[in-house]
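Researcher: I'm preparing a figure for a lab meeting and need a structural model of a single chain. I don't have an experimental structure, so a prediction will have to do for now. The sequence is pasted below. Please return the structure as tokens so I can convert it later.
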Amino acid sequence: MRNINKLSFAFFVLFVIACTDEYLDVPIVDEVSETFFDNEDKIQRGVGGMYAELANIYSANLGTGLIGRGTTIHPYWLLPGDDLTNSGNSNAAYEAFAGLSPSDNRNAMLWQRYFIIVNRSNFMLENIEKSSDVYVDPQLKNFNLGEALFFRAWAHINLWQNWRKAPLVLEWIKSLEQSTHGPSQGFEMLDAAIADLESSILLLPEQWDINNKGRIFKNSSYGLLVKAYLLRANYADQYDGGDREGDYNRAIQAFESIDKSITTIDGVHFGDNFDYRTENNPESLFEFQASINYVENPWLDNDYGGSNGAIGAYYGYFTQHWSNSSSGGGSVGPTQKLIDAFDPLDPRKDETIGDFWWDRFNGHQFKKYINGDRGDLLDNKDGRGCCGISSGVNPRILRLADVKLAVAEAYLQTGASEKALIQVNEVRKRARKSTVDGIESISPADLASISMEDIMNERFLELAGEEGIRWVDLKRWHAAGFIDLGDWTASDFSFPNDDNQFKFEVSTHLLAPIPAEELETNPIMRQSGNNPGY
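Model: Understood. Here is the structure written out token by token.
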């Protein structure tokens, strides 16, 4: 992590002073922060740097990034699991688990960018405290601290889910001596994330005013806490200190603390969660704030060049863009398993899967973020011609339906099956109401009883293709003993090619490889070795 933290620090300082050279060699000192944060507005620009770094995860990255210029990260989280598949063969490392190695560019990029968010959060936590006297609104200081704690927790949860033994960093890196950390152990990183979320709840606002729409608020932390507690419960038997029943109950408590007058699925059409016209709606808990010409979120600065205008999200893999026409690269679409899982009368099917005029995916297209008019927000700012690949539609990172189905697991596992049934049926009821003409469908009908298989199936349908949710779900259900991925074949994963190309090994691929650059530059991590099988 030595190189990554040095670059992360340099990148953040350069962002703050509006410099564009990512590689400028600057001394690792804090004179910049001592003189820069001299008013409340400048602190908000620093806080915005945490939000803006998400652009380097969700945008096309065509010519940006510290590692692997011109590489989109998306196949890394789109293709593992069994809901989406690739029409080409260049992404076999992510779908067929063939050849995934420590030198993989996307693996290194995502590792690096999570650590950039961690270091930006640590940077702001320290400088918000040091700059307390410049706040005109004393409440805003607490809000900003809560935002930084949330971002650090979110990044640490993702690091733990993907790599498990990633270094835990809880201080702003100011020197090379501070930049080398050893691997975290067991639940150490997940515990730290949970502690940050618990602290952030005491600091964040109930909600922001309209001028700050889309910023982290109290319910964001409660929602992420539900998933973090559930994650720790699922892995309780694998690490010391596991408390499965206790964490299920803590997940329930966090869910029941969500202010449902602010965050609700009532009145939110399923498709509203993927449309630029209904961003940051009452169901939303955390979104990447894509934009159009700076008009949507004026508090959020562009993180990769002020002259670029919009901060776009990347949905090119789902389109009929010419860059997807090659057999090597290809497009991403629904698996036959996902297509077959939907009842034809379930309104979510038409919001998730459409017709594809290419002879791919049995004539189907994954279209959650590009369905109908919402697809008109695709632009051509990356110069790719025809259909456009960047979009101002926000990727929804965390929404209430996800949290409701997560807590349904906790209710079921603690014997409160009737409460689990309520959560699942409320999600299904919303689905029935999400028709184009407003006339409620007969599908999906309410369930009369609930099982773990029912919850798993509902998550498959409701959350298909969103933010890598499915692969995380499969791994944690395996850890909890609800499924056994060791018995899964290429067919179970819906891998469409020859079985001999499918290389999944349950003893290896539940974790990603520690990036080669980390092992090369961090002697403590190198001594610890890579994750098993790499």
